[in-house]
Amino acid sequence: MGAKTIYRSNYNKRKGFMNKLWKYSYYVYLIIALILVVEGILQLNKNKQTAIVIFGIAILVLFKFFFTKKFRDRIEKRNQER
Fold it and tell me: What is the pTM of this model?
């Protein structure tokens, strides 16, 4: 067993782990959006301008989640066709 074979084996293991990690990492955007919505609701009583900004950021984060999910699904579909 040569050094290249061991390197490739380790690389494939890391690649598999990273694929699993990336497959679920975009759900972090949902958690962030949820935290921002809660913070926005809490800020409504104190400062409405800050609350509006926080809600705007939450909308952007949700957009990023759906865009990433759609892009990821498209890549997985393309990989399955190969």
Answer: 0.71
Query: What confidence tens digit (pLDDT) does each residue in 21-34 have?
Result: 777 788 899 999 99
Distance from C-alpha of 26 to C-alpha of 64, rounded to nearest angstrom: 9
Tens-place pLDDT, residues 33-45: 999 999 999 999 9
By CB neighbour count within 10 A (0-12 exposed, 13-18 middle, 19+ buried), where does 54 fall?
A: buried
Domain map (residue ranges) of the chain: 25-81
Backbone angles phi, psi at 76, to 5 degrees: -60, -40
